[in-house]
């Protein structure tokens, strides 16, 4: 059986699980509360001026919009949407748009805060933002999704723009949806503005390499970690939770580099094959069926037990909080590379740290996506496009350098990698705040 309920493997020390009461579980499930705890921890470590930490507890701009959509049956349905610009001190706001039934204001605020930190960590000249619409695109037709996207874009067009706030894909949004964002915004201003959004189709100003960029960044940080820790990446079984843009491309790139992907999952369920799964076949299967859960050549694992699967490297690339106080003690992986945003709760982080499990945090591990988004925006602004080799080489430079900077902080200060990443990002951000000073 791939999921054992026995004690974790010898590489990781066993730690007694805390009892999770209702209040604690609610706190753990609130991404904004989690994010603010992470901020406090780093601010304290850096001895940061209180007014700077306080600034980051108050998102700069929050817009709530009502999005009326004409449904296929002729009825009008209202959806609630948000755009949060968390911080603009280092440049225009940047961050994706998420379509999901569980979107909430606190989730969007947390995701926007993590974008602020992520852009600072990889030193992009951006602040952080995020958008979301409470909806279930799985139950909507393509026409309904297009109308939702266009109306939501029109509603937030008062605060977005190539110099102001540049959206991108996130959970359940893709290149086509970004194409509609670009078109809708361009229609409202009267000329084409490809720089208003990234992750667009190549034909309308997208960048080569953007689609694979997050997965590629996940691979680069894992390869760096293997080098630092002295293990052979090709002998370390990999499990990937989520088979969307991040998970699928990570699986593909790990396999291309000779690694063994032993487990993958989506919302419907997980798969395990000790000898390795054929990622090309999985991708083919997914093209034909909605889900990979019934892929034949593998053992089936329940989705909610997936993170406990037997592996060395676990890549959570789905939603927040999938690794939490309730399962962290049973994780078998020695290394967790966060492809998703906020997949590990702070309670889980503490348990994993005590057990000697290394977590490469989201704000570094999945920063490949926004890094190539930045390249896309630069290309759009210059109307001059790069080849894929150039994109991937520059991506590698940025991710490897950021990893090494963070690893140095992790070693010299004897702090976990999440705290190290926060320290790096926060230092840069604080410097920008000090230099700019207070208006008026
Ligand atoms: N949604 C992605 C993230 O969370 C990409 C954001 C972007 O490219 O702006 O990093």
Describe, in short, the structure shown.
The chain is built from 14 helices and 13 strands. The protein is an alpha/beta fold and 440 residues long.
List keywords for this structure.
2 domains; Rossmann fold; globular; seven-stranded mixed beta sheet; binds glutamic acid; 440 residues; alpha/beta; six-stranded mixed beta sheet
What does this 3D model show about the protein?
This protein has 440 residues and is of the alpha/beta class. It has two domains: 1-30 and 212-366 and 391-440, NAD(P)-binding Rossmann-like Domain (Rossmann fold, 3-Layer(aba) Sandwich); 59-204, Leucine Dehydrogenase, chain A, domain 1 (Rossmann fold). It has helices at 22-29, 31-46, 50-56, 105-121, 142-156, 175-189, 210-229, 245-256, 279-288, 346-355, 362-365, 368-382, 388-412, 417-436; strands at residues 61-70, 76-87, 93-94, 97-100, 127-134, 165-166, 238-241, 261-266, 269-272, 299-301, 313-316, 335-337, 358-360. A seven-stranded mixed sheet has the order 10-9-8-7-11-12-13, with helices on both faces. Strands 1, 2, 3, 4, 5 and 6 form a six-stranded mixed sheet that branches. A hairpin with a 5-residue loop joins strand 1 (61-70) and strand 2. Helix 2 (31-46) runs parallel beside helix 4 and helix 2 (31-46) packs across helix 14. The protein is globular. It starts with 21 loop residues before the first helix and ends with a helix. The structure holds glutamic acid (GLU). Glutamic acid binds at residues 94-96, 168, 170, 198, 341, 366, 369-370, 373.
